[in-house]
Structure formats: C-alpha cells, structure tokens
Amino acid sequence: MDYEQLSDKDVIKHAREGRESAFRELIHRYQRPVFSVIYRMVRDRELAEDLAQDTFIKVLNALDRYDPAYKFSSWIFKIAHNTTVDHLRKKEVDTLSLDGSPHARTQEQAEATSFTPADRGIDPERYAESQEIGSEIELAIGELRPQYREAILLWHVEGRPYDEIADIMDLPLGTVKTYIHRGRNELRKKLEHLRA
Amino acid sequence: MSERLHPSTERLQAYAEESLDGAERAAVRAHVVECAECGAEVAELRSLFEALSGLTAFAPSAGFADRVMTEVRVRKPAFAGITAWTERLVPQTTRAWAAAAAVLALPVVGASLLVGWVMSQPGVTAQGLWTLANDALGQVLSTSWHWALARFAGTSIATWLTQALELVGSLGHRDIGLAAVTFALVTVGSIYVLYQNLFRTQARRTEHASYVF
C-alpha cells in the first residue's frame, strides 16, 4: 500500500491493524526532524541515535493509547523532549539542574541556577564533534541554554507553532515566547562578529 | 502613522516573524520604513531566521528503522483483522445505533404480535395457553424445575401474568400493533440514552486527556 498520500492518522490506523509497513512509514516521516532536534540538544551523534531510537520505540509501542484529538507530531516531539530531558537530568543530577534549583520561585531564579554548557566553562567547540554541527550558527545554537535551544529549534527549524511548543515542553505559552525571544537575542550577540 | 519611539525588540521580532495583526503590523512597518536603526534590526533578524530555517535536517545512520522495529510489538495481522472486523460491526453514528436498536427490537415486536394473534383466535384463552405452556414445560424440564414452576403458579406474579395475557387477548389487532410499536420506540429510546451515556461521554472525556507520557 502507498502510504505517502495518507495523513498521519490514517497511517496510524493501519499500524494499529498490524501492518509493519505503516510503522515504517511513521519512522520515515519523523526520523529526520526528531533526530535533528535531539542531536542538536545533546551534541553527540551516537547518543542522539539511542535517544531517538528510544523515542520511536515508546511512541510505536503506545500507538493504541494515542489520542487522535492531538497532532501526532506534537505527541512524538513531546516524547522526544521527555526522553532527552530525562537523559540530561540523569547526567547532571549530582551537579546542576537543567531547569534550575527546585527551590527557585521565579523564572529568573530558576534560570540563574540552571545548567548551561557555558556556565561550566566548557568550550563550545568540544560539543561540535564533527563538521556537520561545526558551523558558526550550529556552535552558537549549542551555546544556548537547553531550554532556549529547544524552543528555538522547534520554532525555527521544525516550524512548530508557539502553542504546540508550549505543549511539547510543558511550559506556559508566555514562557515559550520569552525563551524564543531571549534565545534569538543571544544568537544575535554570538553571531555579531559575522556581520559585515 | 509611524511610532515616535522605537518598538521594543519583542515587537520587532514579532514583526519580523510576521505574527503581528493588521493594525499593529502597519504601525511597526511605518516606523521601520522611516527608522534606519530598526530597519537594520529587522533585516538582521530576518537574516537570522533564514539561516535557522535553512539548517540541515540530520538523518540517523542507515538501518535506524530496522533497529527500531526490532523493539516494536506489531500485532499479528490475523488478530488485527478480527479486531478490525469486529470494530466494523459497532455502529459509528447515532442513526446507525438507532437502526441497530430497531433491528434488535424486531424479535420482541414479532413475539408480541404472535402472542396477540394466538390470543385473538376463537377458543383460545389465557388460562388455556398458560396451562398448555405449563404442561409442555413440565414434560421437558426436570422435576425440580416443574416443582419450581408449580410453586410459581401459586404466587401473585403468576396471577398478574395471567391477567396481563387475558388483557392482551381482549385487545384487537390494531391495539396490539400500537402497543408493539410503542414498545419498540421505548426500546430504541432506551438504547439511545444508554449510548449517549456510555460512549459519547467517554469521547468528550478523552478529548481533553493528557498525553500518556
């Protein structure tokens, strides 16, 4: 069967009926966007492959529980977000929190105590393991704090609307807008030297 | 009319990403056209947006789909086929449910009409019919059942049943048909109410359900 013309919901229907080719179609449609976001979040190809693989396994094994009232793309990006954030949290649990101190009462306090590669004095170039994420803009993105980075990637690279990003990242809409705004400002500063 | 003060960076970003509504967009545009500083900022933002949207979409290594599929549980097509066939039997619309209820009510209506017709025949009485049924059942069923039936015959329920049968016997064909149609309508209505409560409420509830993860 040719699935290319079918909507995500129709492909899911076929997958629920036990057609393996429908599962593969869903992987084909989303492997690049999901992997790209995760790769740019963790800056490690091998790790990104593992996390993307976990994401797809969780999603495809839970198709029976998928609620068609939601967009499938939102659902898969949300699971990718949770999988990535869980990994980053486990990695940093003994040092600094990704989201900032649990005792922080305001957004500013949370951001002041949150983890970013730059806070730890890590040379951003160390994150660029290969040429593919070694360009100036990729390096600048890699220097953003993870929350800004993810919001920027979802909006600009994946073309997700604000409300969907809020849903994926489990944040208020206003916070998402703030993150994107601040992320853009930081990118502009980091790329200032490239301006003619 | 252009704005005297420079728009905030938030507004300039919103303008550059084209998310401002008509009036606000017009106001910012009028300013940006006249103000070289803001014009340059918008141009720079657009250039940044363009660079971001043009970023490469990375692909995982070859064999990614195969590696995923080794961990995915795919239901066997035969089982899935039976499930799909069963799902097709369940009505999907209110009209379909009403039609199904009417079909289900037909045997009841048919039996009612049959009993009515038998009772309307000359020489047939409710008492005689009851005795006949009682005798037939008594021959077929075990002694214990017969004993239970005999005990039942002495209760007030049996008396009411007999009276009901006599009442039906006294009615004409038109009355019985009317009663059967009324009964069918009540049955359809009941099933519809049941459907509304069991299925539609569930659907409304799941519309706002949160994600499973």
Structure described in brief:
The complex is a heterodimer of chains A (about 200) and B (about 210). Chain A is an all-alpha fold and about 200 residues long.
Describe this structure in words.
The complex is a heterodimer of chains A (196) and B (213). Chain A is an all-alpha fold. Chain A has helices spanning 8-16, 20-42, 45-61, 72-92, 107-112, 136-143, 146-157, 162-169, 173-190. With 213 residues, chain B is mainly α.
User: What's the oligomerization state?
Assistant: heterodimer
**How many β-strands of chain A, per DSSP?**
0
Please summarize the sheet with the most strands of chain B.
Answer: none
Could you state the order of secondary-structure elements of chain B as H and E?
A: HHHHHHHHHH
Look at the helices and sheets of chain A and give the structural class. Answer: mainly alpha
SS-derived structural category of chain B: mainly alpha
User: Count the strands of chain B?
Assistant: 0
Shape of chain A: elongated
Terminal CA distance of chain B reads 50 Å
By DSSP (H or I, 4+ residues per run), the number of helices of chain A equals 9
What structural keywords apply?
heterodimer, A: 196 residues, mainly alpha, 9 helices, B: 213 residues
Please write out the topology.
The complex is a heterodimer of chains A (196) and B (213).
Chain A: H1 8-16, H2 20-42, H3 45-61, H4 72-92, H5 107-112, H6 136-143, H7 146-157, H8 162-169, H9 173-190
Helix pairs in contact in A: 1-2, 2-3, 2-4, 3-4, 4-8, 7-9, 8-9
Chain B: H1 9-16, H2 22-34, H3 36-53, H4 64-69, H5 77-89, H6 94-120, H7 126-140, H8 143-153, H9 156-170, H10 173-207
Helix pairs in contact in B: 1-3, 2-3, 6-9, 6-10, 7-8
